[in-house]
Write a structure and sequence with these properties.
alpha/beta, Rossmann fold, 2 domains, five-stranded parallel beta sheet, four-stranded parallel beta sheet, globular, binds N-(3-carboxypropanoyl)-L-norvaline
Length: about 300
């Protein structure tokens, strides 16, 4: 594995989960692996969990970290090839990525989609440009279309909390006032497709995700029916994919309640808007796994960094 930018980069999810659980049980056994190695974390967007858990993962491996908010703190980066740079961008990604590679042994990047230009978002030009012009491995900390560190942490969490051999897992859309990315949902879907689970997606009409991601996964427009006998309910808002980036529905009937969940475990990547996506009683109740999901972000990242360090 040269870079980690997708759940598709995981060769054997069962083995990865086992390795992540070993790291969680004994986080400092590879403390020597990262000695004198540096990871640079570059954020084009806000972050709480990703920023801290990825640093924590690096610390556990003995690495040094450098963190930068690119939007605002760095020079405006130009991504276009052959552009006459007489506008607002001050340096080209060709120099920026090459320079950063002099200081870092691994580069991690967060770059959200525009949600207005589907083609541009799907080109993943920010992440791909870093990969093209950096001379060290690149890790996605959520790109325009995928959030593979979250998807891996979610697989670990489900594995830890499964009682039945083949649990029923539901991914449910829930309402939000803003237009949100598809990345978390996409990576969760890819991750569940690799696991031995019964998996179903539920959302209102108009919220169909990219068919290249959902493939033959069952989709239901009836949330109540989808939740029946569920072991895990993963909730996430995303904007429309077909009517790209639009908010088509804010129907509060899709909000997740304690009553709807029954005995199912509740999952969300966070940050979550209380009483819009899910009611307080769920997050404050004992069936919520959200804090454990966030905890597992450290071991997902630690496993990925360990693999990249061992490669180099
Ligand atoms: C991001 C998303 O992809 O949906 C990051 C999740 C890890 N979430 C948001 O942007 C939520 C913003 C909000 O205002 O609720």
């Amino acid at each position: 594995m040269k870079n980690y930018t997708s759940i598709n980069d995981i060769d054997n999810i069962g083995v990865w989960i086992k390795e992540a659980k070993m790291l969680k049980a004994d986080p400092y056994i590879y403390k020597g692996l990262g000695t004198n190695k540096t990871i640079g974390l570059f954020f084009f967007n806000a972050s709480l969990r990703t920023r801290l858990s990825t640093q924590k993962a690096a610390f556990n491996l003995g690495m040094n970290t450098m963190v930068m908010n690119v939007s605002g703190d760095a020079w405006g980066i130009e991504f276009g090839d052959g552009t006459i740079m007489n506008g607002t961008t001050a340096e080209h990604i060709k120099e920026a990525a090459a320079v950063v590679s002099q200081y870092c042994d691994i580069i991690a990047v967060r770059a959200f989609p525009t949600l207005s230009d589907k083609e541009k978002d799907e080109s993943e030009y920010i992440l791909k440009s870093f990969i093209q012009y950096a001379t060290v491995p690149v890790v996605s900390m959520e790109s325009a279309t995928e959030h593979p560190l979250q998807g891996l942490a979610d697989a670990i969490t489900i594995s830890e909390h499964s009682i039945s051999k083949r649990p029923k897992v539901v991914l449910s859309w829930a309402p939000h006032v803003k237009s949100l990315p598809h990345a978390v949902a996409n990576s969760f879907i890819q991750s569940m497709q690799k696991m031995d689970v019964e998996f179903i997606i539920t959302h209102p009409k108009g919220y169909e995700l990219n068919p290249k991601i959902t493939k033959n996964t069952t989709v239901s427009y009836n949330q109540e029916e989808a939740f029946k006998d569920a072991d895990f309910v993963y909730v996430k808002n995303w904007s429309s994919y077909s009517d790209y980036g639009k908010v088509l529905n804010t129907d509060s009937n899709w909000m997740v309640t304690k009553n709807k969940l029954g005995n199912a475990k509740f999952m969300h990547c966070l940050p979550v808007r209380r009483n819009l996506i899910v009611e307080d009683a769920v997050l404050d109740g004992e069936n919520s796994l959200v804090i454990e999901q966030a905890n597992n972000r450290t071991y997902a990242a630690q496993l990925v960094l360990k693999k990249l360090l061992e490669n180099g």
